[in-house]
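Hi L., both proteins are below.
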Amino acid sequence: MVAEAENKSITINGEVITPGQNGLVRMSISRLPTGTLIDIPVHVFNGKKAGPTVLVQAGLHGDEINGVETLRRMLQENVFNIKNGAVIVVPILNIFGFIHFSRDVPDGKDVNRSFPGTRTGSLASRMAHTYTSEILPQVDFGIDLHTGGSQRHNFPQIRYSAEDIKSKELAEIFNAPFYFASRQINGSFRKTTFKMGIPTIVYEAGESMRFDEDSIQTGITGIQNVLTELGMLSKKKVSRQKPSVHLSRTRWIRAPRAGMFVPEVKNGEQVAKGQTLGLVTDTFAKKNKKIKAPFEGYVFCINNQAVVNQGDALFHIGSLKTKSNQ
């Protein structure tokens, strides 16, 4: 009988987590002007038996707290009690943004536009460099948790890289209500992992600075689905009953004029071509402009801002069909 191979050790910030051990590593980043040390908490769960290493992270944008709560609950409930491989869990990557209720770091730069970073660059660039150097070389798969921006509510969705078939497979396994390919942005975490050969998916759900229970529960289930499919969790798959909907193309619908915005559909709703999605009206009830769906599809993001300017993104909708088929 051949003995099963032992898993590899995980080394972060000079600390070694050997197979069969769990640990919390604090990765030093910088100090506040008061001298207070700022570090990134990194939880490592290293199984005894060989398997893949999965990075699950949240809080890359400090004001996107849904993912933070998702991972907090999973840590509290000991969900990452794996047998094979390793899971690296980073509940809050952008500590500076989190404590300042901000998307960015204090110098105004976006960490998710600063990868892979440099050792002597801006604060955001240094954070990205440390992360890229210390953690990413040890990772086989990545799951990055995000929310919509200010006032924009994303219905639970997975985004993957069209150039990476394995990321699409991960998206299907996660089984969020929607999944679709999205372009890689220069300086983003996902583009850097793609260049390093690490299949990565981005889970978008809810909006910044607000908890959304459905988004949190869908995220917990999706992460468990992935870990189960990779053979890291022994319990049965806990997928939603409905299969994920693959959107072939997406489009933002923008405000035709400035005014009061009143949506008339719910997020996640299927809509018909020409259906009224909402309207923009002036405050004197003299003029209003209906916003209609340009094609049949699904609404997967709605702007909750009540007063909008011309050109503001109001709805994000996706279609099951390609443009040539419509």
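That was the first. Here is the second:
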Amino acid sequence: MNGFKNAIELLQPKLRQTFERLSPTDIDAINEIRLRLGKHISVSTTSGNRFITEAGELTDDCTFSLITESSDIEYTFKNAFSYSLHSYSKELSMGYITVGSGNRVGICGTAVTDASDFRSVETIKYVSSINIRIAREKRGYAEKLFNSCMSLKPAGILIIGAPATGKTTLLRDTARLLGEQYRVSLIDEQNEISATHRGSSQNDIGELTDVFVGYPKHIGISTAVRVMSPDVIVVDEIGSDEELKALEFAFHSGVTLITAVHSESFEEAKEKRVVKALLSESAFQYAAVLKKDYEYEIISVD
């Protein structure tokens, strides 16, 4: 509930009041709130995309749903960046910022590129879309995975799922459970897992967990191995060559890997080059394949 509350606090008061009228069941189902200039306000839920009416009801028919006005975009955009855009130039160039409760606000608009390198985005202007992704701290979510695969010692785990199926939520709770017994290094590039504010994690990620916030994943992984001697490294959304090299370095240094990848199934995931390489080295013993409604299937990959 805190994630949802913090998310709607970014909205204009009138729009915020509309979201407050939603039923508890609808609130629990919402993963994202999306504002698109001149288009109907939508939410991403566990059952798909829906729209919201002024009465505070979710509907599949956008006919009577609310439309995003320019003032909605401007208010939410400035609120997310604490009315101090110059202080968040890095976040603006990346197109997102992490706010209260670990929620991530993504922005879409017209890119202003570096004059010397058009491939490098300096900032964004004329914001046209905003996506507020709600972080949910779901304690107990990883207990089935922990009890089935790691009751005696940590095991290499690959978490597989489509966007908004709960990969980050499962990683967070896995870090919490492992971090009560083992030295865990959490590589939290986007600050979605720990929701760290001024050095203090706002989410429960375990007593023995050290957090590397804002580090590019490959640098965070390598640094963690060298300076924190972790038993386990937890990192989200792997995919690049640099990340593969860093993960291989950690694995061959005796560190257990727990990570996630975007895929619909294990069969699809194992064809990704980074995953295929790590599987060939036996870096993972199990895969957790996420389904709808925060359910997942555990597969042995040995």
